[in-house]
């Protein structure tokens, strides 16, 4: 079919629109990349001289190092707890009917609706009222609550697409429930478990608002350390941190895309 | 052998977490009904004073600001997100589709701080946009984006865009292409096919995406805090300020509680909307 002038017009305006939108998405990251190499502590475009000093400063600044260690610790421990609780709950949700199931489900899913600042405030008030110390375990607790719905969802979806016949075959051959679980169910659930764990770690590592309410100087996470830096200093150190952050995340996504195809993970095929 | 193996063991951890969530919710409700004792973290006796305090202009303004931010952010995010999602699902070359996917989704995995900070560099008085406009001589004095609603909306649109694109792309990818082909074969042009087939079929996705954009904007904190800089107060920034500047936990609790009830009401309206639409359209998944 030959293209009419209108079709050409549509094609070209579509291309221009897409370029503009992608430009809007990418603009802040390009600008931050330029700003991170600016030698002066005061922002100027285009930079008059270039240097890597803000990268050196970012690496040397102690709160970033401490925050990074805290965030990795919180993400690892929090994701582990969320995986144990979330996978168990998804299984129970998929397989059994029991009293209070709906109530339990709505409570566990409520963090999807409750704003993070309210979750943070609630846990802060609770720990104050119960005179609990503001330790790293409080931060981990907040993160488990926030990431749990995502873990439950991704394991639950796996269970829904699950071939029950393999389990039934093992059972009919005399395997005990525990053996069926460990040798049939768990291995078949690995994709759901992996994507659940990925979501948990990424969300936990990025979480800022709720953490801000419950951390102290000692337990501050990486995002909180970054926020505190912007409040205290005006130099472009955070631009350098942002550039490293973007590169690491984009590289991780490329790897995930290679192995799992993001279209599939996000259900946009 | 029990009929329901593992039920207890598997449910136990999540039951404990549910107790934690319920307890912190009860703590908020409890504190919202208690008096504030200046200089003390412990609350006083029962009172409804916190809720009457919320009628003051500062708090009303924060509510109005939050609703306006949610409204404008949702509109602009949809206008920008729809073409992007459309291109992501429909672009002819697989390479282009992958590129669009990666570019538009990477921000989803960058925290609120990195993205907001980047926008400060773009929008500040000495930032990229103002420097570019002044050097080309288009303006003489910098345009104020910082500490204004416009600045906060721009950054919030960028913040909610990825999740909206994911939801719209999911909706668009589940539309049966045969319906469009049928329309084309009956002589409808591209514009007409889009306006009468594709767009109407994607409405449930649009409504779902709008409700998510609303929830994200409502709970956004770093963006209004850092770009609004205290000049654009929202419910989230006010809760933080009341909680940490004066340690008035009772008032912070009542403010979040009212905010939460408002969110639930709005999301409930969206949900009914989605259900109705799905019934009418017979939307197939």
One letter per element, helices H and strands E, the order of chain A comes to HHHHHHHHHHHH
The main β sheet of chain A shows up as: none
Instruction: Work out the helix count of chain A.
Output: 12
Give the uncertain stretches of chain B in residue-range form: none
Number of helices of chain B: 13
Number of strands of chain B: 0
> Regions of chain A with pLDDT < 50 over 5+ consecutive residues?
none
Based on the structure given, which CATH architecture of the domain at 57-109 and 146-281 in chain B is correct?
Orthogonal Bundle
CATH fold-level topology of chain A? MetI-like fold
Mean pLDDT across residues of chain B:
89
Percent in helix of chain A: over 70%
- CATH class category of chain A: Mainly Alpha
The global form of chain A is globular
Helix content of chain B: over 70%
Structural class of chain B, please?
mainly alpha
Give the N-to-C terminal Cα separation of chain B: 39 Å
Main location (chain A): membrane
Organism (chain A): Harenicola maris
InterPro entries (chain A): MetI-like, MetI-like_sf
Membrane topology (chain A): Multi-pass membrane protein
Describe the 3D structure:
Chain B: It holds the Pfam family BPD_transp_1. Chain B: Belongs to the binding-protein-dependent transport system permease family. CysTW subfamily. The complex is a heterodimer of chains A (269) and B (285). Chain A is mainly alpha-helical and 269 residues long. Chain A has one domain: Orthogonal Bundle (MetI-like fold), CATH 1.10.3720.10. Chain A contains twelve helices and no strands. Chain B has 285 residues and is an all-alpha fold. Chain B has a domain at 57-109 and 146-281: Orthogonal Bundle (MetI-like fold). Chain B is 74% helix and 0% strand. Chain B has helices spanning 7-32, 49-53, 57-90, 94-105, 112-123, 128-135, 149-173, 177-185, 190-201, 203-219, 222-228, 235-245, 249-281.
């Amino acid at each position: 079919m030959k293209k009419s002038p209108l079709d050409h017009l549509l094609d070209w305006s579509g291309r221009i629109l897409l370029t503009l939108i992608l430009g809007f998405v990418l603009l802040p990251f390009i600008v931050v990349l330029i700003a991170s190499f600016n030698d002066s502590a005061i922002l100027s475009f285009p930079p008059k001289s270039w240097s890597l000093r803000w990268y050196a400063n970012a690496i040397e600044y102690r709160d970033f190092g401490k925050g990074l260690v805290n965030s990795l610790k919180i993400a690892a421990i929090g994701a582990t707890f969320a995986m144990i609780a979330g996978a168990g709950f998804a299984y129970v949700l998929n397989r059994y009917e029991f009293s209070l199931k709906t109530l339990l489900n709505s409570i566990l899913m409520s963090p999807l609706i409750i704003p993070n600042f309210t979750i943070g405030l609630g846990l802060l008030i609770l720990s104050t009222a119960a005179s609990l110390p503001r330790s790293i375990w409080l931060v981990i607790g907040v993160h488990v609550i926030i990431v749990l719905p995502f873990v439950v969802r991704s394991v639950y979806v796996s269970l829904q697409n699950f071939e029950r016949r393999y389990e039934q075959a093992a059972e009919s051959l005399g395997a005990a429930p525990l053996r069926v679980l460990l040798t049939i169910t768990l291995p078949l659930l690995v994709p759901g478990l992996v994507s659940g764990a990925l979501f948990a770690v990424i969300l936990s590592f990025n979480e800022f608002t709720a953490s801000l309410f419950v951390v102290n100087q000692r337990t501050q996470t990486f995002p909180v350390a970054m926020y505190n830096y912007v409040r205290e200093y005006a130099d472009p150190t955070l631009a350098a941190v942002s550039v490293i952050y973007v590169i690491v995340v984009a590289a991780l996504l490329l790897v995930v895309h290679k192995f799992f195809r993001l279209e599939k993970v996000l259900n946009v095929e | 052998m029990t009929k329901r193996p593992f039920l207890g063991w598997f449910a136990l951890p999540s039951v404990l977490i549910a107790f934690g969530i319920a307890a912190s919710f009860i703590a908020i409700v409890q504190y919202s009904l208690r008096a504030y004792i200046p200089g003390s973290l412990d609350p006083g006796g029962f009172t409804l004073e916190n809720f009457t305090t919320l009628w003051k202009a500062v708090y009303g303004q924060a509510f109005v600001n939050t609703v306006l931010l949610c409204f404008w952010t949702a509109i602009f995010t949809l206008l920008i997100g729809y073409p992007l999602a459309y291109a992501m699902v429909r672009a002819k070359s697989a390479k282009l589709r992958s590129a669009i996917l990666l570019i538009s989704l990477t921000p989803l995995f960058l925290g609120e701080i990195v993205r907001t900070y980047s926008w400060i560099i773009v929008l500040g008085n000495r930032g990229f946009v103002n420097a570019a406009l002044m050097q080309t001589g288009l303006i003489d004095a910098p345009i104020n984006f910082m500490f204004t609603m416009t600045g906060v909306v721009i950054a919030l649109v960028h913040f909610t865009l990825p999740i909206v694109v994911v939801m719209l792309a999911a909706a668009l990818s589940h539309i049966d292409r045969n319906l469009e082909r049928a329309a084309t074969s009956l002589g409808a042009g591209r514009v007409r096919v889009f306006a009468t087939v594709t767009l109407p079929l994607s409405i449930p996705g649009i409504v779902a995406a709008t409700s998510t954009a609303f929830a994200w904007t409502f709970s956004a904190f770093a963006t209004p805090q850092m770009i609004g800089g205290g000049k654009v107060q929202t419910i989230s920034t006010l809760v933080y300020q009341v909680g940490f500047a004066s340690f008035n936990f009772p008032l912070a609790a009542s403010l979040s509680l009212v905010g939460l009830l408002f969110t639930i009401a709005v999301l409930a309206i969206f949900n009914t909307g989605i259900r109705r639409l799905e019934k009418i359209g017979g939307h197939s998944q």
